[in-house]
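thread: overnight batch results

M.L. [08:02]
morning all. the overnight job finished for the chain we discussed friday. pasting input first so we're all looking at the same thing
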Amino acid sequence: MSPAAHAAARALLADPLTNKGTAFTEAERDLLGLHGLLPPHVGTLDSQIERRRRALAGMPDDFHRYSFLRELQDSNEILFHALVQRDLPAMLPLVYTPTVGEGCERFSEIWRRPRGLFLSWPNRHRIADILADPALDRVKVIVVSDGERILGLGDQGAGGMGIPIGKLALYTACAGIHPAEVLPILLDVGTDNAARRDDPLYVGWRNPRIRGAEYDAFVEDFVTAVADRFPGVLLQWEDFAGHNAYRLLERYRDRLLSFNDDIQGTAATAVGTLLSAIERTGMALTEQRILLFGAGAAGCGIADMLLQTLQAEGLDEAQARSRIWAVDRDGLILSDMDGLSPAQTELARDPDDVAAWTRTAHGAIDLFDTVANVRPTVLIGASGQHGAFTEAVVRTMAQAVAQPVIFPLSNPVSRAEAHPGDLHRWSAGRALIGTGSPFGVAGVTQVNNVYIFPGVGLGALAAGATKITDTMFMAAAKALGAMGGDDTLLPPIERLRDVALDIAVVVAKQAVADGVASADAVTDRDGIAAQMWTPTY
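M.L. [08:03]
and the structure it wrote out:
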């Protein structure tokens, strides 16, 4: 073999998109010059999966399993995705929530080799050149974060890259997007987390966050470069802080195919699960009294979709707003409060309407007193405040409602508003419960965005949509709400690939109806399924 042939053989094994490890056949080893670089045994994908399963079973905790799977993804993409797809219930909590939270916190500790792109402030003038890499020619889906609001953990800086990597693994597992067609990106504009900046292992740019006009100009340069380089690409905004999440979504949703999963994906998942729940309670959505705890990007996104859904059910805007209450860090949101965001202002109550309600020493109406006065039928948590749904809160709610619907949605588990086992006890087993993270409690539904975003992305791409509309998310939510099983409010995790395909079909059809995709777009189940990749050698 020539030196070039030897180099090519090693490059083949070093590329996770081409490496098959021991599964290279004898003929392939002859042709590609792989003899000696691999053990003599010729394996199969099945035997490789079994080897990795045994390795995972022998590890001390989920963080080590997460780290092992990240390394596997960086060495053999087909094996990684086959392993994930064949056991989604076991793998989903390892490649994404809840374990990805610790993965982000310890990202610099376990970083080994490049995946995706770090576009940092010092290299802002190089964005177009970085994106010009021919290795990126096939990219169809980008998930981007600036790392400022990672789950309920706050600012993780460059460690936030764990989120785009994890989300895109789910795009491949559930929506069948080829791993060569996905690109995780971290916009590294610094971090205000001093512990990260002071960590000698930290891999990011060690400066406080760039903000204001400079930040906006940086994002503008990024979006412009993406639109030029990848026409028709789907851009998913992920884990941006609330003050930026809404601004960026509104600024760019008409310029390229994009959505914010924390706002729109969370909303569609929560609303879809709620629609499934109320089928069991027998009370119409228009009769529900809905209390949201947490009015950041996720909470306000849920509220906005609820308002749209209530109006679609026949209420006018004022009537729809009267069914929703929102409590944030300063208590029940009132119109005379300072510093409300535009989205929070839409949820604010008239102080005169609650003048007789009990207030704290600081003048706020807290969660307990809101529950006591509103007597909500639905309680949704998107606050990141661990234990906020106390026994007093839940028992007070359950006293007035036959089947309370309670969704502590915050991730990871350490930020959940309540443990579902406690909710069962405090409601005498009557509550319909959905959680953001898996708890392993029977009868509890995991309300995870993975039920929505892969299908939305797949449907939009399959139809060639030019925009993702609110009604496309509404169609996804309604479709999800109709999929509930006998024992849980949503289909089992094992069916996520089928769920993504079903969601993709209704999203593609809605795109055509909304005029953002052509009348002859691919919208049929078979046509969309044909575009889904399956990991095989």
